[in-house]
Amino acid sequence: MTMPFYVPPEQQQRDRAEFARRGISRGRSVVAVEYADGLLFVADNPSATLYKLSEIYDRIAFAAVGRYAEFEQLRVSGIQSTEVRGYQYAREDVSGRALANAYASALGAAFSESPKPLEVELLVAEVTDTDVEIYHILYDGSITDEHGSVAIGGTAEAVQGRLKERYREGLSLPEALAVAREALADPQNGPLDSGRLEVAGLDRTRGRRKFFRLTDARLAELLAEGTPST
Length: 230
Description:
Layout: H1 9-25, E1 30-35, E2 38-44, E3 53-57, E4 60-66, H2 68-88, H3 96-113, E5 120-127, E6 132-137, E7 143-146, E8 149-152, H4 156-166, H5 173-184, E9 197-203, E10 211-213, H6 216-225
Antiparallel strand pairs: 1-2, 1-8, 2-9, 3-4, 4-5, 5-6, 6-7, 9-10
Helix pairs in contact: 4-5, 5-6
């Protein structure tokens, strides 16, 4: 009788983590930058229809990197769960923290129990009247809160380093866009063409729904207004 091949649990976890990290790193980066009126998401995304950035609920937005089919399912489930909670209780009872915890539980369960881990990394953001909450969820269900700016996916470590050099509190929207674009820039080829940028965010000065997505015309206008950070 042939004995089954034994893999120590610790090695299996390391292999699963490496598998997920490799899948996520093959994607293009997304950055989040706080600005005076809320939060700006900027993604390196040449697709005009397969969005990485999305509205989830009135004050809550979502950004993702990795395998599109997997994070799209998470996005849809997030919209459904928040809509149900808002209907059953009150719209004010829906929070970014609760949604981030739900995503963390789902990713953690997939990492531990599914045949393969989900190859995704997420950001969930919520704006209040005075603050911005950003939750960073990894493929294994780990969750951290972020402040100011954060980069995920692709060459996130290098992008995060450039973000730290350029970010400051109180940026205007054009300045925040310039900072994000500079951080995503390829050191060899310079800033990304506007056609590769997907830009969306949360603006606390808007009405009930705080989410916005920039059109090509508005993006070009803001890029012209933005000044390089020093």
